[in-house]
Amino acid sequence: MVQRALLWFRRDLRLFDHAALYHALKENQQVVPVFVFDRAILDTLPVNDRRVAFIHASLRELQAALREVGSDLVVRHANAAHAIVQLAREFKVQAVYTNHDYEPAAICRDEAVGRALNETGVKLRTFKDQVIFEQQEILTQSGGMFSVFTPYKRAWLARLDDFFLKPYPVRRYLHNLAPLSRQALPELATLGFDDNALDDLPVQPGMSGGEALFEDFKQRINRYHETRDFPGVKGPSYLSTHLRFGTVSVRELAAYAHAVGAEGAQTWLSELIWREFYQQILWHRPDVVEHSFKAEYDHLPFPNNLDWFAAWCDGRTGYPLVDAAMRQLNRTGYMHNRLRMIVASFLVKDLLVDWRKGERYFSEKLLDYDLAANNGGWQWAASTGCDAQPYFRIFNPVTQSERFDPQGRFIRKYCPELAALSDKDIHAPWLARSLNGLRLGIDYPQPVVDHALQRSQALALFKRD
């Protein structure tokens, strides 16, 4: 009997250096590649969700690559937990291979799939793929989780060696992919989504998109520590979306940064380690999805002014860098990391809005949305999380603007109504020496709050608790 298996693609949409695919191909004579547009997730999303469009375009490229080696991609639009069991029965497989997902809902789904498959005599085999170290691989000396980044990073680097960075040699086993008749990839409209959600975005999906960005970043990585905080210049790698959907390999990225070793590369490697730090927090403390990591801050009495929250969402708070960042998010699905910290601090500590509201808004808008990183970043800014910024350290949105967008280049791009202001005045138009025709309150809003006053109220809010 032919030893046959399913390979269940999820957040790993590539045909190289892929843990589950490697093991499936090596251990079976025929491997059937499958992907499920999971209705349990998709039915909750808006029709213009950019992430579904990114996934769809990436699958189109993945399918073409599979066809080049004589196979294809079987795609279903259904509840994933049911569809995988049905596909296992349809293709008469002995096992289903997939990579670990660390989000609580995904863990529950996979446990349910595993039980259902087991009842039919099919094994569910899962592997580590999207991180270098997972779950309980990096622990404190007492055997617990790390709640402070710096010692976690030291332990992470101390354990790192070539074994953990070694790519899986998938290509040599591709001949074990199942020969399949031509499979249909449902159109976005058939799935209930807009088919032009990515048209105006500077995003190239798929393996080719990830490779192109990585090759570009290699030319800039040695300057990363100098440029990464300035949203008006080309500093970041812009690989976060590709990391989220696995169109790049984290092993390849980390291995390159580790090998280069210069300050810029090491700073970028630290960002990859931050990603894994938040993943291990989510694994050990899944309650952080709804609750503050620090229990004493879980029920802070935020006023939650809905008008101020709406102004923040729309990019009309009257603070130019905050507004430019939110407009970038709304327009492109991306926000620079420094700006994520600034707008999060502003929402929580200037507008006194619960961090969970901001986190949910980001979860709807970010193309690179990742639960662990988004939750960790928001709780860091809100001072409610692990290794968080102390509550008494509050970003001043004007000084942050002057420091990280000194010429107002980023502000002018997303708040063009402010373009005529001088480099000095553009950070705080209400203090401008000359408005050059700008009508505050008409062309651009007056500040919705006074930062100094709100800072004192935020301090009182945290102290009272």
CATH topology of the largest domain: DNA Cyclobutane Dipyrimidine Photolyase, subunit A, domain 3
Strand content: 5-15%
Level-1 CATH class name of the largest domain: Mainly Alpha
Structural class: alpha/beta
- In percent, how helical is the residue content? 40-55%
> Per CATH, which architecture of the largest domain?
Orthogonal Bundle
How much is the average pLDDT? 96
Q: What is the first-to-last residue Cα distance?
A: 66 Å
Which blocks of ≥5 consecutive residues have pLDDT under 50?
none
Report the biggest beta sheet as strand number plus sense, adding barrel if it closes: 5 strands, parallel
Mass-distribution shape: globular
CATH superfamily of the largest domain: DNA Cyclobutane Dipyrimidine Photolyase, subunit A, domain 3
Please list the strands of the largest sheet in the order they lie side by side.
Answer: 3-2-1-4-5
Order of helices and strands: EHEHHEHEHEHHHHHHHHHHHHHHHH
The total number of structural domains is 3
Based on the structure, what is the oligomeric state of the protein chains? single chain
The overall strand count is 5
Q: Which value, in Å, is the CA radius of gyration?
A: 24 Å
